[in-house]
UniProtKB/TrEMBL annotation:
<dbReference type="InterPro" id="IPR008927">
    <property type="entry name" value="6-PGluconate_DH-like_C_sf"/>
</dbReference>
<dbReference type="GO" id="GO:0004165">
    <property type="term" value="F:delta(3)-delta(2)-enoyl-CoA isomerase activity"/>
</dbReference>
<protein>
    <submittedName>
        <fullName>Enoyl-CoA hydratase</fullName>
        <ecNumber>1.1.1.35</ecNumber>
        <ecNumber>4.2.1.17</ecNumber>
        <ecNumber>5.1.2.3</ecNumber>
        <ecNumber>5.3.3.8</ecNumber>
    </submittedName>
</protein>
<keyword id="KW-0560">Oxidoreductase</keyword>
<keyword id="KW-0456">Lyase</keyword>
<dbReference type="GO" id="GO:0003857">
    <property type="term" value="F:(3S)-3-hydroxyacyl-CoA dehydrogenase (NAD+) activity"/>
</dbReference>
<dbReference type="GO" id="GO:0008692">
    <property type="term" value="F:3-hydroxybutyryl-CoA epimerase activity"/>
</dbReference>
<keyword id="KW-0413">Isomerase</keyword>
<dbReference type="GO" id="GO:0004300">
    <property type="term" value="F:enoyl-CoA hydratase activity"/>
</dbReference>
Length: 42
């Protein structure tokens, strides 16, 4: 995730959720970290 950037990962997950269903939606923790521009592993 850190190599792509968490914001990009969340964006991709949202796109997949729209196409394939809510099971591909990012969890609240990922959305929060993306909004704060934090990394996943640090």
């Amino acid at each position: 995730m850190d190599s792509l950037g968490i914001k990009k990962v969340v964006d991709l997950m949202n796109e997949h959720a729209q196409k394939y269903g809510d099971r591909f939606a990012p969890c609240d923790g990922l959305v929060t970290r993306a909004g704060l521009e934090e990394s996943f592993y640090k």
